[in-house]
Amino acid sequence: MPKNKGRGGKNYRRGKNENLTKRALETKEDGQDYAQVIKLLGNGRLLCICLGDSKHRLGHIRGKMRRKVWIQNGDIVLVALREFQDDKCDVIYKYFPEEIKQLKNLKEIPENLEENENGGGVEFLVNEEPDSASSSSDSEEDSEEDSEEEHTKPAPKKQQPQQQQPQKKPQQKNQDEPKLKKEDIDDI
After folding, report:
1. What is the C-alpha separation between 116 and 118, in angstroms, rounded?
2. Which residues pair with 58 in a beta bridge?
3. In this structure, how many other beta carbons lie within 10 angstroms of the beta carbon of residue 8?
4. How far apart are CA 62 and CA 66, in angstroms?
5. What is the largest CA-CA distance in the chain?
6. pLDDT tier at 17, thresholds 50, 70, 90
7. Nearest CA to 135 among 144, 126, 124, 122?
8. What pLDDT is recorded for position 45?
9. What is the C-alpha to C-alpha distance for residues 102 and 24, in angstroms, rounded to an integer?
10. What is d(CA 26, CA 93) in angstroms, rounded to the nearest whole number?
11. Most buried by CB count within 10 Å: which residue of 34, 73, 115, 182?
12. Does the pLDDT value for residue 37 go beyond 50?
């Protein structure tokens, strides 16, 4: 077999990653919105939540981005909204973490977006309002007791159907009957 010359492999065709220059920050225009990826569905589709109107939409990754730009859960992307289908959109741009920080500084996206520590992605945090102060301490104690009871009760086990096994009849020795001896057997 001929020896490989080192030209023509997948990594050679991709080239070196020296072209990581700063990109100009793209902001949304009319008919576009920022979105966060919730779930990847496969076949170039994903489920995302638009940050402008908080609607869940089915996103479609455009062909130019496929196999070149890898999108993961939690990424912030720029989507083009469809006029004729409100529940679908097209992903046209993926933002890097540095660009997300710039968008936060420009107040384009909400401040309560935080980056994941493990993957560099972004996570949308929802602030919960505290309960009203008018509730009495008795109700708090009752709720604590209820929660403790829920945690201490073991989960019900699934009962498996039991197979009926033949029962052995116990052999009872009748002590009233005399024991047969060898001599008695010979007489019979």
Report:
1. 6
2. 47, 88
3. 8
4. 7
5. 119
6. low
7. 144
8. 96
9. 11
10. 8
11. 34
12. yes
pLDDT at residue 154 in the model: 54
Mean pLDDT of 22-51: 93
SS3 184: helix
Tokens 């660009």, located at residue: 99
**Distance, C-alpha 142 to centroid of its chain:** 34
Q: What angle do CA 31, 35, 37 make, to 5 degrees?
A: 140
Average pLDDT, the chain: 75
Pick from 26-40, 61-75, 76-90, 143-157: least confident? 143-157
Q: pTM to 2 decimals? A: 0.54
Centre a 10 Å sphere on the Cβ of residue 79 and count the other Cβ atoms it contains: 26
Amino acid identity at 108: E
In 3D space, the residue among 115, 112, 62 whose CA is nearest the CA of residue 91 turns out to be 62
